[in-house]
């Protein structure tokens, strides 16, 4: 059964919509949410359709339902703020990009954290790096009941935080730490979303803050370069040295908060963002 764990933190008239990643949970954005609230922002940590339940709940949804939940969250939140910023982690960054391409008048700026167009980090086994072929495989009935299991270090460099989050994930607390694996059909949906967003990048005119770990274990820096080459608007890139993929919870989460708050404030004040 899906548990609703989204949250709304009240603040000023500038708001940040936070989007978690595939098989993830709004909890992975809570550190950043609280930090942005301290800087005066209202923050909405939304929950993607099909998430925070079991694998069957996830498999009952796909890219269309995930993006529709983002649309609905943006409409709900935009009615409460004057400036709407959208930030996402991993696949959440792709959904943020798609929203900005579709709604340029609504999205004032973007935070792209660990942007993932392709799973190609240093912990991904060779066969996992072929996962971009999954849409074709799943369409002919291959791997419908298969899954890729999360790999150590689970996107987190900080050992203390890793033990806590990995323990919750492996114990089945999906509302706290997400699912311990990615079903092949869901990964196929992810790649279909990725291909769509790559084509839409030139339509993204909103200023973007790209933050990514140098040693990202899930998505290499090639994902950053793809975003930089494709974006149709200004961007600023920050590479982090002491984190892995989950930069919103890892050792440099305070850097993510401070840089994001400064970036969004400049846009709200009408100053050049990048």
Could you give a quick summary of the protein structure above?
The protein is α/β, with parallel strands linked by helices and 274 residues long.
Strands, total number: 9
Total number of helices: 10
What sequence of helices (H) and strands (E) makes up the elements? Answer: EEHEHHEHEHEHHEHEHEH
Strand content: 15-25%
- Main beta sheet strand tally, sense and closure: 7 strands, mixed
Rounded average pLDDT: 90
Classify the helix fraction into a percent range.
Answer: 25-40%
* Uncertain stretches of 5 or more adjacent residues: none
Radius of gyration, in Å, reads 17 Å
Distance from N terminus to C terminus (CA atoms, Å) equals: 43 Å
Largest beta sheet: strand ordering: 1-3-2-4-5-8-9
Gross morphology is globular
Category from helices, strands and their pairing: alpha/beta
Your description of this structure?
By secondary structure, the chain is of the alpha/beta class. Strand 4, helix 4 and strand 5 form a beta-alpha-beta unit. Helix 1 crosses helix 10, helix 3 packs across helix 4 and helix 4 packs across helix 8. The longest helix is centred in the last third of the chain and has 17 residues. The mean pLDDT is 90.
